[in-house]
Design a protein that fits this description.
The chain has 308 residues and is an alpha/beta fold. It has helices spanning 44-54, 69-80, 129-133, 145-158, 172-179, 188-195, 200-207, 249-262, 267-282, 294-303, and strands at residues 6-11, 15-22, 36-42, 59-65, 84-90, 97-104, 109-115, 135-141, 162-165, 183-187, 214-218, 224-228, 234-236. Helix 1 (44-54) packs across helix 8, helix 4 (145-158) runs parallel beside helix 5 and helix 9 crosses helix 10. The protein is globular, with a radius of gyration of 18 Å.
Amino acid sequence: MMNKRWDVLGIGVAAVDDLVFVEHFPQPDVKMPIKYKQRQGGGLAATALVTAARLGKRVAYCACLGNDELSAYTISELQREGVDCSQVQIVEQARPFHSIIIVDLSVGSRTILYSSEGFTEPDPARITDQLVRECKVLLIDSFVLKTGLHAAKLGQACQVPVVADVELPLVPELDQFVSLVDHLIIGTTMGAAMTGKDDPAEMVRELARTGRTCTVVTAGELGCWYVEGQGEVQHYPAFEVQVVDTTGCGDVFHGAYATALANGEDVSRAIAIATASAGLKAAQPGGRTGIPDRTRVEEFLREMGNAV
């Protein structure tokens, strides 16, 4: 196998998250104090790449950002985590997403209010077969669907596995994109929208009909259901942790899963590593603060009786 420049190349959205922590979610027409607040980087692909970097992988981010404060913060945070930003295109009016996240400390849940003003997909022409060949795993989120569709086609042609994070809304191009994905990992909300099913196991079974390498539906504290190819549906339970904030858990799952693939792990091991990583993140506030490193994930899995 030729030497690869990166273990994981991510194409997708980055966000700047301003988190507001409150004792409980506010009711209409009330005043309530903020317990504390903080700013962190966020976004599907960007947070997944931070996860892969903390787990010891060489990663790169491909996106379109601008010259504004939010873009500068995004690049600075990613570079601080060891993410290669040489593939970020700078365009004057481009921006990352900007989110205000209300975190309910009583139950550890969050509500995300976001703005996509200025968000710009990278030019598909920048995604070449040479670029794709330089990574072991290609991670794409559905916020860059036009570019992502082009990249996924190249991934298939170059035999580079594609891991995808797909969120609403349902758009005409989504089916074509999903058909090119080798490892589809989605939440139950998206699974229900795509299949019309209520049960995660049924969602997975329906989505696996294409025979992709692996289909996963995550369900928070219930764990996840997955199918390899068109085999039997498997359930992997979530680990018991003291949940503080679920912001970014899905993104962490994707990043840890992609990391395991880059390491040559099989699907079942990738699921275990991803579940552990997401669980550890949930025990700390914010989308990135609690992302574990490789040593912590290995320790946690041993503590849980899941041998490394």
